[in-house]
Design goal:
Layout (H helix, E strand, L loop, with lengths): L18 E5 L26 H14 L3 E5 L9 H11 L2 E6 L6 H10 L3 E6 L4 H8 L4 H13 L5 E6 L7 H10 L4 E6 L4 H5 L1 H4 L3 H18 L4 E5 L19 E4 L5 E2 L20 H7 L1 H4 L17 H4 L4 H8 L15 H17 L14 H12 L3
Helix pairs in contact: 1-2, 2-3
The protein binds iron/sulfur cluster and FE2/S2 (inorganic) cluster.
Length: 391
């Protein structure tokens, strides 16, 4: 809807949720220190069954959704994954499996192929066994390489993803080499976004500006050298920017997530926002959730904005940035994204970068020993209960 006389857009009847992300399970064999699942995931262990997921897909497709991400946790832990893919494909979804590779055998790949799966994204943690296995707290480095070869053998384009932070940014060149060696067509070099477990580990993961500049230069050199052989995506982290990203392409405009227990999410990290009553697909239709629920309307458009966004010329371009980042850094989900240089919270973001820099300098000799909180059920229950008790 166009801006009103005062210049702010009202929450408009939204277009379709083009992108549906189905977080099929929070279960995962890996323990990544930057996992984007909620820190208290272990308190939400319930999972929708096959029929319930199929119904979610059917409703989403009727709403106009076109792309379906199947993620987790590790979606391969769902024995009905092939059934879900087949149903989604039959509805006309473009289906994308987001996986660590654990459990992706030759037989499973053949079955997924036969069910119509379109696309696979495989995550690596690093180009070295030592760091890959350390960061995921598993021994999966060789397995991931075997799985990458299987993905190619089954005729899929190879999409590799690696989350970057100060421990592996110096390895960007060898990560690209690994992607080339495995025949990847795309490599997503995703600098850590500090939500979920990564927020808990922000001081252990935060890179320095110099590391980012060097890594980006390496990426540019490779781009010039390899051309279209492998497409390299490198996203600079918000903490080093002056303008925020248009997070989720605008709250409640494009993205609809569904958590394993059926909770509907306007963004994958929204579960930790206080005072936001999240609807559930078990008790409401997806259409009603998308169009009318308070959770999906709360930050739609620009009417909710505080100053300085409210009178800023960029408000329609970035829609005030990221609500989850605003909450984590300032304690207020409705605040201007602190990534913005005009935001009252911008100084706090700068302090976190500086604290990370000090942490990196203090531990340069023993970077691997810097205490990280790895994702595990025990840590999740502990952190979840300390939050509930106000800790
Ligand atoms: Fe965007 Fe708000 Fe910053 Fe303006 S003040 S650039 S609208 S976040
Ligand atoms: Fe939730 Fe940006 S991650 S709005």
């Amino acid at each position: 809807m166009p801006p009103n006389a005062a210049g702010w857009s009202e929450p408009a009847p939204p277009g379709p949720p083009l992108w549906l992300l189905a977080e099929l399970t929070y279960r995962c064999p890996l323990h990544c220190a930057f996992c984007s699942n909620p820190v208290d995931y272990a308190r939400h262990a319930e999972e929708l069954d096959t029929a319930q997921w199929c119904d979610v897909f059917t409703q989403a497709r009727a709403l106009g959704a076109v792309q379906l991400g199947l993620s987790g946790g590790e979606p391969l832990l769902r024995k009905d994954l092939e059934t879900l893919v087949r149903h989604a494909r039959g509805l006309g979804f473009y289906t994308n499996l987001i996986t660590s590779g654990v459990g992706l055998t030759d037989a499973r790949l053949a079955a997924l192929r036969e069910a119509g799966l379109d696309h696979i994204q495989l995550s690596f943690q690093d180009s070295t066994r030592e760091l890959n296995d350390f960061l995921s707290s598993t021994r999966t480095f060789e397995l991931k390489q075997r799985v990458a070869r299987l993905i190619k053998a089954h005729g899929y384009p190879m999409v590799m993803n690696c989350v970057l932070h100060r421990h592996n940014l110096p390895h960007v060149g060898t990560i690209i080499e690994l992607a080339l060696q495995l025949g990847a067509e795309y490599l997503e070099l995703a600098n850590t976004q500090y939500y979920g477990w990564a927020w808990e580990n922000r001081l252990a993961l935060m890179p320095t500006r110099e590391q980012l500049i060097e890594a980006e230069a390496v990426v540019r050199q490779y781009r010039a050298r390899i051309g279209r052989q492998c497409q390299l995506l490198f996203v600079v982290p918000d903490y080093f920017e002056e303008r925020p990203k248009k997070c989720m392409n605008g709250w409640g405009t494009t993205f609809l997530g569904v958590a394993p227990d059926g909770t509907a999410l306007p963004c994958h990290a929204a579960r930790m926002l206080p005072d936001l009553v999240l609807p559930n697909v078990k008790t409401g239709t997806l259409r009603d959730i998308w169009q009318h629920s308070d959770a999906f309307r709360r930050f739609r458009g620009t009417q909710w904005m505080p100053q300085p966004c409210r009178s800023c010329e960029h408000r329609e371009a970035d829609l005030g940035g990221c609500r989850c980042q605003a909450f984590l850094v300032t304690g207020d989900a409705a605040a201007t994204d602190p990534a913005c240089a005009q935001a009252p919270g911008h100084g706090r973001l700068r302090e976190i970068v500086l604290e990370g820099r000090l942490a990196a300098a203090q531990t340069a000799a023993q970077a691997r020993e810097y205490p990280m909180v790895f994702r595990s059920d025990a840590n999740s229950l502990r952190l979840g209960s300390s939050r509930n008790s106000g800790g």
